[in-house]
């Protein structure tokens, strides 16, 4: 499973963001990131997972408690 269990909803409202892992690249080996589920090119359509989790840890009240799905 993913480290956090679930991903946040994309800001465009389409669905939850997809979590992917980078391939073996020079700069970011196996780093997780979140992307827009419909591949949108909008603000916040991409974010590094560790940075996202850092935001959640700093602002726990900002985490949507929606348990739907
Ligand atoms: Zn989106």
From TrEMBL:
GO MF annotation, one: zinc ion binding
Keywords of this entry: Metal-binding, Zinc, Zinc-finger
Domain GRF-type: 10-52
InterPro entries assigned: Znf_GRF (IPR010666)
Domain of life per record: Eukaryota
Stated name of the protein: GRF-type domain-containing protein
